[in-house]
Write a structure and sequence with these properties.
Layout: H1 2-9, H2 13-48, H3 53-63, H4 81-133, H5 148-205, H6 213-243, E1 251-253, H7 255-269, E2 274-279, E3 286-288, H8 290-307, E4 311-318, E5 322-329, H9 338-341, H10 360-370, E6 374-379, E7 385-392
Parallel strand pairs: 2-4
Antiparallel strand pairs: 1-3, 4-5, 5-7, 6-7
Helix pairs in contact: 2-4, 4-5, 5-6, 7-8, 8-10
Length: 395
């Protein structure tokens, strides 16, 4: 019984309204036929009161000889007012019961169709539209029938989810923009202030010889360091701006090829720490942008080398649809939440700004998201950080 109910509930709108109309007409015809039969019986009982019984039975005897005997209809003046009224009602029911019950049944079927098939999804869509208009996207549409209205609700909920995701991305962009302005103010103003101080000291003390040559050279060298620092910062800015316009290139990547490329990267970056690489062997081929994947790995590996003590473990898993690269170190782990760590120009302490711009984790996150994946950050129970880059297959 439950399966039949579910099947009827999931019928299409067109089939459902046809089913309701057919059932209502069928019931209406049966009910009208019964009412007409009952009305004729009531009418015969009334007419019997005003019938000559001897003449009727004589007619019945004649019926055996080929005649049909019926109770004769008395004239209206012969019947009482009540009997005449009941007889007229019976005439009306016999004549128009089919029409009346068909109209009533059709109206009732339309009402039931709306209540059972349309009312709930329409109310859900109205509620969803109002909440979206109020900028409230923290809800879900619960109508789950597999009909046209269910499909419409599902698509509407998918649109709500996309709007929520777009709002989240927009909010993150606003936060990144705020961080960017703050970083620009700091990373440009600080070296400029240092350069200004050196220049003022050289202008004040160099002409009268109160500063020796060795000190002047040292100040110039420090000034060059600040200039290089600004160059690195500007390169990072250009790299971030070009990322939005970068088009991914679909390349076939096997586990053997990926292992070879990662090992080449380790030979360059992994001389300071002990690094173990584990790649799951498989015959499946992943389709993705190899250059982007290697850039993400380089950023994660550089970050792990910076904060690990001795050991770094890299685990790679590859299927035809998904590629995951996990980098684990034995350092102190993350002290801040993932949202803050993956912002642009995030630096753990002020000294970091002298050696790097704090763009590694931010770019890694953007590259993963551009590849349809995500960047996961967590702390290992026994200590250390684990960063997992997830890439989805691209066409």
């Amino acid at each position: 019984m439950g399966k039949i109910r579910d099947k009827v509930r999931n019928l299409s709108v067109r089939k459902t309204i046809l089913l309701y109309l057919i059932l209502s007409l069928l019931i209406s015809f049966l009910l009208s036929a019964y009412i007409a039969w009952a009305a004729s019986k009531v009418q015969e009982q009334i007419w019997w009161k005003y019938t000559d019984e001897d003449a009727y039975f004589a007619a019945v005897e004649m019926a055996n000889k080929g005649y049909l005997a019926q109770i004769p209809r008395p004239e209206s003046y012969e019947m009482s007012r009540i009997d005449h009224g009941i007889s007229e009602v019976c005439d009306f029911l016999q004549t128009y019961s089919v029409l009346v019950f068909s109209v009533v049944g059709s109206c009732l079927s339309v009402f039931l169709f709306y209540r059972n098939k349309l009312k709930k999804p329409i109310e859900e869509l109205e509620m969803a539209s109002q909440r979206i208009a109020d900028n409230d996207l923290d809800f879900r549409i619960t109508y789950e029938n597999r009909d046209e209205m269910g499909h419409l609700c599902h698509e509407f909920d998918r649109m709500r989810g996309q709007l929520e995701e777009n709002n989240r991305k927009l909010w993150r962009m606003i936060e990144d923009e705020r961080e960017l302005r703050s970083a620009v103010a700091h990373d440009i103003r600080s070296p400029l202030s240092v350069l200004k101080g050196y220049q003022e000291m050289l202008i004040d003390y160099l002409p009268d010889g109160t500063i020796d040559r060795e000190k002047a050279v040292e100040m110039l060298q420090e000034g060059i360091k600040q200039i290089r620092r600004m160059d690195v910062f500007i390169d990072s800015m250009q790299k971030m701006n070009s990322l939005e316009h970068r088009t991914l290139k679909a390349e076939q990547i096997s586990h053997a090829q990926l292992e070879k490329d990662i090992q080449r990267e380790l030979n360059i970056l992994g001389k300071e720490k002990r690094i173990d690489l584990s790649v799951c062997k498989t015959d499946e081929i992943f389709c993705g942008d190899q250059e982007v994947i290697m850039e993400v790995l380089e950023n994660l590996l550089s970050n792990a080398i910076r904060y690990s003590r001795e050991q770094i473990d890299i685990k790679v898993s590859l299927t035809s649809e998904l590629l995951t690269i996990s980098v684990q170190d034995d350092g102190n782990g993350f002290q801040e939440d993932a949202e803050k760590i993956t912002r642009a120009f995030h630096q753990k302490n002020i000294k970091d700004s002298l050696t790097h711009t704090g763009m590694g984790m931010y770019l890694a996150r953007l590259y993963c998201e551009k590849h349809g994946g995500k960047l996961l950050l967590e702390n290992e129970k026994l200590g250390g950080a684990i960063v997992t880059a997830v890439f989805h297959r691209i066409a």
